[in-house]
Design goal:
By secondary structure, this protein is α+β, with helices and mostly antiparallel strands. The strands form two sheets. Strands 1-2-3-4-5 form a five-stranded antiparallel sheet, covered by helices on one side. The N and C termini lie close together (6 Å).
Length: 133
């Protein structure tokens, strides 16, 4: 099973989840946006056509995978596709979306699908089986 969950204080809410084997760390940060600030990144994304609506909160995902040599890599991140932000995965910060994103990272790790290889890969649904390794 995946997960030890830790909550940190700071900008929004930051939580991190660690795989049982300690090789994958998933960091989720809740980002709050100001619709009245034209320089807020959510408004920039909307103006540039990257998203179709303003989202008052979004989840930001970072992943850290430790290989056999102790090096860390940003693999197994559904927010990255073709070495760029995958805007189709951008979502509001809700408990359901957080659980789905963590499950997707876990499934990518389990299946050995790296972020830049993820195009066309279909994650499992959020179930206890999906979260198991």
């Amino acid at each position: 099973m995946f997960y030890t969950m830790h909550e940190l204080e700071g900008f929004g809410t930051t939580r991190h989840y660690e795989s049982e084997d300690g090789r994958l760390l998933v960091v989720l940060q809740t980002m709050e946006h100001d619709e009245g600030n034209r320089h807020d990144v959510a408004n920039v994304w909307l103006r540039k056509g990257r998203v179709d609506r303003f989202m008052p909160t979004t989840l930001f995902v970072e992943t850290y995978y430790t290989d056999d040599d102790g090096n860390q890599w940003g693999r197994f991140n559904p927010f990255i596709a073709g070495w760029q932000i995958n805007f189709s995965r951008l979502c509001e910060a809700t408990p359901e979306n957080e659980r789905a994103l963590v499950a997707e990272c876990a499934a990518m790790y389990r299946d050995g699908v790296r972020a830049y290889e993820a195009e066309g890969w279909t994650p499992c649904e959020v179930t206890p089986e999906c979260l198991a390794f």
